[in-house]
């Protein structure tokens, strides 16, 4: 975007054009006070500020500093040539102090690709560290910026922050029992697959989901910047680290909160990009919110369209969902605690549509862990997350070396070429299709899961055991009625 300022003759007036929203329109009062309190003269003529491009709505306080610099140049208090090849960002306090401005990182990344010098508030040093360099300058006050442009002082350059992970991720060894669910988590981490866990309250569904990020490889520098840009675009302070995001929205979240909306800002799906989106109590989400997941699960992209604007955000997340087997949560309990009727159970499970269930790779049933097992000191120590993550990392490396992407992202043509089956395995899949009524999409997902199981076992060919395990993880009749 570009800020243009014209100072003409006439009665004192201040006009701003270019579709400014309320926050931007109010900047004229902030700029006026900031200039006067910083020792500058506010011109008494007719001031016109144009925010280009004219057809794009403008929001936020980032325009305060460039408007102030344009007024100073138009009134002759600064030489116009000092503004060339420079970009200014920042909200101004009435005293002239530069305050932290949200949503700057995407603009800084784009500006760093040019030869321009970037000047922004010192309070945005964390975001500046992502594009640190000699052309990224930090300032605390409007007068400090003007002194630097006039050659009196020099602005400090933004530095790179050292990354330190403060708190360790939760370990899978802390979860007792649930070996089938732990195996499903390992497969999910190795191939980027989605997972639905069905079990009674207290079975450990949330504990298991929270430990999936610890099984995933850390973000590389490019991925970390991509995640940070999305967090900044959503108005959040971007995290400086290599941990994959873990988002767990409440079941009352709206469609706009999940996919994004309002002023075209990213939602929970995009904030979980390259990480994990955990939806607990899946049937309690609004039906239209759940249906909005279907396209992003396939494409990895969220498309937002409004009357005059549209945009898209990346959303390559791993979906982990959890639900109870019935409204009370105790269907199938050996002590007979469930009092739900068959009609109530059917209505509860039918809140999740078949097309959405079909897009979730794995479906795992959990049973309640006996309290005696939890209190026992003689329980065998479980495998920790580090060991499982190492196996998952080797399987991911094999997939990237073979096809350049994870198994979960294979298209139908690639599935046919890469996930080849022998005669016995093909017969097993055909039997599963006949008995479980698998769709064509489910058939491809079985092949992808089998390929991931083979990669975890470091096998070049898919074995019958791999197909058998994949079929068990696609038992749709356990979920739908």
Descriptive report:
With 481 residues, the chain is α/β, with parallel strands linked by helices. It has 21 helices and 18 strands. The radius of gyration is 28 Å and the shape is elongated. It starts with a strand and ends in a 9-residue tail after the last helix. The C terminus is likely disordered.
List the topology elements.
Blueprint: E1 2-8, E2 13-17, H1 22-25, H2 27-37, E3 46-52, H3 64-74, E4 86-88, E5 91-92, E6 98-99, H4 105-112, E7 117-121, H5 125-128, E8 133-139, H6 142-149, E9 157-158, H7 179-191, E10 195-198, H8 205-210, H9 221-233, E11 246-247, H10 255-259, E12 260-261, E13 265-266, H11 268-271, E14 276-279, H12 287-291, H13 294-299, E15 301-305, E16 310-314, E17 318-323, H14 342-349, H15 354-358, E18 362-365, H16 371-375, H17 385-403, H18 412-418, H19 423-436, H20 440-456, H21 464-472
Features:
481 residues, alpha/beta, 5-stranded parallel β-sheet, 21 helices, elongated, disordered C terminus
Into which percentage range does the β-strand content fall?
15-25%
Cα(first) to Cα(last) distance is 54 Å
Provide the helix percentage. Answer: 25-40%
Helical run tally: 21
Question: What's the overall average pLDDT, rounded?
Answer: 89
What's the β-strand tally?
18
Taking pLDDT < 50 over at least 5 consecutive residues as the criterion, the unreliable ranges are 477-481
Q: What is the C-alpha radius of gyration, as a whole number of Å?
A: 28 Å
Strand order of the largest sheet: 11-14-17-10-18
Principal-axis shape equals elongated
Structural class: alpha/beta
Biggest β-sheet strands, sense, barrel: 5 strands, parallel
